[in-house]
Amino acid sequence: MQQFKTYTFRLYPSFDQKKKLNSFLGTTRFIYNHYLDAKENNQGLTFYEMKKDLPNLIREYPWLQEIDGCILRTAIDNLENSYKRYEKKLGNKPKFKKYSQMESYKTNYLEGITSNHVKYQNIKVDLANRTIKLPKISEIKIRGYRNLTSFDKKIINVTVKRVAGKYYANVLVSENIEVLPFTPSLNMVGIDLGVKTLMTTSDGEKIENIKGQLTRYERKLKGLNRGLARSQKGSKNREKIIIKIQKVNQKIRNAKKFYEHIMINKILKDNDVVFLEDLKTKEMIENGSHGLAKFISNSNFSDIINKFKYKAKILGKKVYQVSTYFPSSQICFSCGMKNERVKDLSVREWECPKCHSLNERDINASLNILVEGMKLYFKDFDKEMKLYLENLGRELDLI
Ligand SMILES: [Zn+2]
To answer: I need a labelling partner for 236 at 20 to 30 A (CA). Which of 94, 276, 327, 395 fits?
Structure first.
């Protein structure tokens, strides 16, 4: 399976390299602002014309010769994207960029042969020496992926980022991932995704949201935000606090990612077929309003579902999503009666008016998802069995 993957390395540039990286980042801003200004004065100017104009600009500002040319073009691409987003009403009107704590530039991988028949690559990750070679800059020391000894991958592009005074390179590669075949199995599980309890399985297991485990970071964030409110705009102190806030936020994001990764792996290790809800189900049944918190939890759900699908494919497992209109929370698993009263999210436990069984909201939902998912899976079962036997070199009618 061909798959895109990003490898993030921390960069340890020397003093001179840092100066260069900063000038590259500054150039991205400069080009963006220059053509934004030109576009504001001449609405008819196209992005293609801007790119064609670059050699003129380089003649006008000779220091641009020192800059990786790809950066100049991608800065115009960024401007184009900002305008497109604005036109589609997805973003604000493009504004002039100012120096900020988080900036990035992107450069594409190129390969060629120089005049003396030497193979030329403008980007190279050398894990023996732990360096990265980027266009127009000497080898920069890197850290990350200690267990990798060689980087024999097809590089697509690199995004260099400066976040709170630290430098990173996101190396996008296309790689071939080995995929295990699926073995038809009755080892199945239904999973209910939730805001408070992240995942509830039909085996009755509850995986809590990591939020409760992040109180240390949250306390720190609270204190920093208080400090930020008291600090003076434009002061050095304020700048320092902003950097600290970014660092804590990054730590929270990393911890969350790692936690989800561990939990999803655990479920896929214990089960061969996983049933999840279609995201829209949750939105429609449980979201009366559209607050920011809900938006966040929903995007988190889709992230989790995507991780399940991706990992399952590699591990030779199956993931099915049950129908958009299936009200998993409202149906009593024991007798199948639909209880509208359970629509209200605050109802955590309810007694079925018909069969009088006591239902815990999330476990009941996950059991319903299991049964609904089984219907989908069994429709595919013959096909999967046939495929499996074919791989073994046997015929279906042998069983
Ligand atoms: Zn019932």
So the answer is: 94
Q: Residue 271 carries which side chain, given as an amino acid letter?
A: N
Number of domains into which the chain is organized: 2
- Same structural domain, 129 and 203: no
- Cβ atoms 397, 386 nearer than 8 A: no
**Residue-by-residue DSSP string for 228-247:** HHHSPTT-HHHHHHHHHHHH
151 and 113 housed in the same domain: yes
Residue 321 CA, ligand 1 centroid: distance in Å? 24
For residue 297, what pLDDT is reported?
55
Q: Is there a domain that residue 240 lies in?
A: no
Q: Tell me how far CA of residue 102 lies from CA of 39, 162, 166, 233, 240, in angstroms.
A: 25, 5, 9, 18, 13
User: How far is the C-alpha of 156 from the C-alpha of 136, rounded, in Å?
Assistant: 18
Confidence check: pLDDT of 397 > 70: no
- Contacts of residue 24, defined as CB under 8 A and 6 or more positions apart, other chains included, come to 67, 68, 71, 105, 136, 137, 160
| Residues with C-beta atoms within 5 A of ion ligand 1 | 332, 334-335, 337, 352, 354-355
Confidence band of 213 (pLDDT split at 50, 70, 90): low
Distance 123 CA to ligand 1 centre (A): 63
Q: By residue range, what is the domain housing residue 98?
A: 2-176
> Is the pTM higher than 0.70?
no
Residue 279 belongs to some domain of the structure: yes
Q: Which helix or strand (DSSP H or E) is residue 293 part of?
A: helix 292-315
Distances in Å between the Cα of 22 and the Cα atoms of 18, 76, 102, 245, 362 are 6, 18, 11, 22, 51
- Find how far residue 124's CA is from the centre of its chain: 25
Task: Tell me the pLDDT band of 292, cut-offs 50, 70 and 90.
Answer: very low
What pairing do the DSSP bridges indicate for beta strands 131-134 and 137-143?
A: antiparallel
Q: Do 129 and 266 belong together in one domain? A: no
Distance 365 CA to ligand 1 centre (A): 13
Whether the per-residue pLDDT at 318 is higher than 80: the answer is yes
Read off the pLDDT of residues 219-254 as tens digits, 9 standing for 90 and up.
888 999 999 999 988 888 998 898 888 888 888 888
